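Design job #97: recover the sequence.
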């Protein structure tokens, strides 16, 4: 299936010219879709439905530089090629600094140049995404790693302070995990870690984050969640892990459980360090209380 490319340009003629360039590409074929305004183009760009975007500098009252910056601030990962009618170096540099991977000057564009630029942006985008994943993901489980967990929880704390909402943290620990490694070996322990990670991630919203905190411990960040909502999610996590044995081989089903501790910012703590400390204390209470359960800070 042909990859989709988004053109954001307020000139219908430019859309037709770009489509004509696409029709004579020598290599891969792409489907070109058009957005005529800033307001139409931004949500399309942020949808994640496109492999790359061709973005015009002039977009009515606002320009493409503003759109790139807004898209990047919203977490856009789509490779962007900037189109400008100006050959001024300042615009080119600003576009690249804002997040564009390449730029083309409209008066100099040929089909070969567009095809080359798209191929370059797509390849560079794939490389950057692979590097970003290596930097932010835990190799074994595919979850966010500790470094990214720390960055996100700081970011969410700042957002919570700015907008006056709550952030919940659930700390999760696999019960008796050491005995799994000691009895069955570390490869089986790795299977358990991966499957627990998958089950945890399946129980949260797309806006929430799940990270491998370290060893057999995980952190779940819930945005806009109060104590009741967070405790409900924590109990769901316990059920999801407990419900079915984890198959570490055709003849080795393991009954695994987790314990979870819940804390809320800013109710239980004013900052990230305090939030983590309170969630850890709640997790300890869950362990002392018999494991396979969720406890909120101050509940026990």
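Job complete. Output follows.
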């Amino acid at each position: 299936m042909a990859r989709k490319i988004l053109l954001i340009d307020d000139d219908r003629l430019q859309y037709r010219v770009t489509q004509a360039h696409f029709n004579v590409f020598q290599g891969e074929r792409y489907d070109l879709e058009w957005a005529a305004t800033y307001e139409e183009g931004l949500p399309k760009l942020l949808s994640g439905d496109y492999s790359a975007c061709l973005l015009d500098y002039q977009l009515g009252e606002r320009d493409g530089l503003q759109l790139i910056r807004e898209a990047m601030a919203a977490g856009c990962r789509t490779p962007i090629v900037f189109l400008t009618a100006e050959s001024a170096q300042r615009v080119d540099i600003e576009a690249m600094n804002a997040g564009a991977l390449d730029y083309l000057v409209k008066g100099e564009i040929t089909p070969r140049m567009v095809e080359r630029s798209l191929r370059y942006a797509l390849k560079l985008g794939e490389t950057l995404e692979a590097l970003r994943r290596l930097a932010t993901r835990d190799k074994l489980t595919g979850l966010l790693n500790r470094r990214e967990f720390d960055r996100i929880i700081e970011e969410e704390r700042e957002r919570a302070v700015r907008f006056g909402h709550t952030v919940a943290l659930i700390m999760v620990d696999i019960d008796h995990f050491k005995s799994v490694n000691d009895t069955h070996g570390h490869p089986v322990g790795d299977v358990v870690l991966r499957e627990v990670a998958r089950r945890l991630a399946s129980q949260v919203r797309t806006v929430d984050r799940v990270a491998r905190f370290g060893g057999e411990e995980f952190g779940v960040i819930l945005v806009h969640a109060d104590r009741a909502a967070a405790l409900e999610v924590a109990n769901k996590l316990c059920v999801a892990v407990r419900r079915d044995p984890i198959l570490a081989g055709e003849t080795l089903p393991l009954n695994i459980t987790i314990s979870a501790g819940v804390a809320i910012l800013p109710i239980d703590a004013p900052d990230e360090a305090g939030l983590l400390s309170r969630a850890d204390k709640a997790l300890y209470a869950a362990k002392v209380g018999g494991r396979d359960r969720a406890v909120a800070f101050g509940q026990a």
